[in-house]
Target: FAD dependent oxidoreductase
Amino acid sequence: MAEGKSGRQSVVIIGGGPAGLTAAWELLKDGGAERFDVTVLEATREFGGISRTVKHNGNRMDIGGHRFFSKDDRVMDWWRNIMPLQGAPSYDDKKLGRHHDLEAGGPDPERTDVVMLKRHRVSRIFWNQHFLDYPISLSPGLFKALGFKLTMKAGFSYLWSMVHKLPEDNLENFYINRFGRQLYSMFFEGYTTKVWGRTPVQISADWGAQRVRGLSVISVLKNAVRKMMPRKRDSSQVETSLIEEFWYPKLGPGQLWEIVEGQVVDGGGRVITDANVVELRQKSDGSIASVVYVDSQGARTELEADQFISSMPVKDLVNSIGRPFEGGPSDRTVEEGGRDAGGALTKAAAVPEDITRIANGLPYRDFVTVGLLVKHLRLRNTTDMKTLGNPPIVPDCWIYVQDPGYKVGRVQIFNNWSPYLVKDVDDTVWVGLEYFCQEGDEFWNMSDEEATAFAVKELTRMRVINGPEDVLDSHREHVRKAYPAYFDTYDEMPELVDYLDSFGNLYCVGRNGQHRYNNQDHSMASAMEAVANIKSGREDKKNVWSVNTEKSYHEQK
Model:
């Protein structure tokens, strides 16, 4: 790609989430502004995408819950360079007499906000009015909850699955092969249907391969036994789904991405908010020439560049590929024009009909988070781990609600992610209830009052709180296209990938940019690979699309 008049390559990055901001900083760090002219276009006024932190009346919500842990050392080092690890006890560490391996010379969380905390991960499953450890532990509580008959059925079902393997052509068979049909029907079938709105038999096994490849009954049992051993294990020996310690920004994940955005600007980059990309224009040679974005006032601006990195949803990206580039000054305001009699944008360099069909058939799952500030929880802390609060609260980061009698999918307890997320951490508990739904469905369209009342009623039935009298405050967030789904036209993605790669100077990164259920670290790694290609001149993009598909990126390393 030819360089501009300044001698620098111009790069436009669509999206200010983890993938987009990682790409921007990878281009600009270490004096990269001398080589690259970088512009980030973010459709909202917030940074971090689904990894943002929502602020409400002095309390902070983590949208989705984000453990900062990766099998990729590049990502771990990257995070540590942005926010150094704590070198002194945090507020709850001091209060509870809790000890970590603190970073020598690291910052004190009580004195500065720019610090990464070390957190202990505790999660449980709520099933049949019982709270079970997750990952499963060989505890009396488990056998009491299941009962002798069900325990035996689950055991023999698992043994049968070891010798009678099903073809892994759907997610149901994937789970049954690893856990047996009995455990599958108890803990996976209903919960997966709740999350995706489809039964597992309708979902590609690829989803299981990306999310729980290393998790099985054997791995859970091995982990339970190893925990009894005195020798400390390296994290590379543990499945990602079983990791018990992780890092966490003091003020939530959005804090880190806000810092990165500031570094991008200080490093010579440009970040434009309220910039909703609506069109990508092409050159005659088949490459991308420019993007057109609409600002909050409705004005359309065209921005030319040499390279383009997109983390916008694939469906929207394909529908944005419009007419050929007409030339003209960069960064110019343009008229809408180019519409047919029906008002639709004309496509002089039309996207093939089959590609449009595949893109528009890609499904997504949206969700709603309801935050409730409560006086206390009814749940008793029956673990041997001291917990913060008055009275002490349970130590859970997440509670997975796998009981089919409840619509809520997960309950977060923000106090345990970071005490600094909660304004009055000693006397209130800040919880988040995650509801999986579709944009425009009945639950999505509920009023704030209706959604809050629904959440309060479910927490009361679960015996987590006494009732509405315990609730001090609430807040609801809608999250669009939170989870790329693995059904409908998903199995035709390879054809779509080939088409997008044909543009040469267009790189698709991140969860929605690749329509892949990436973790935050996978999204970052895809951006790192894209930047490496731009810097080296590598033309094929196999390495960019291979993140979270090859063994080294999977749950088991």
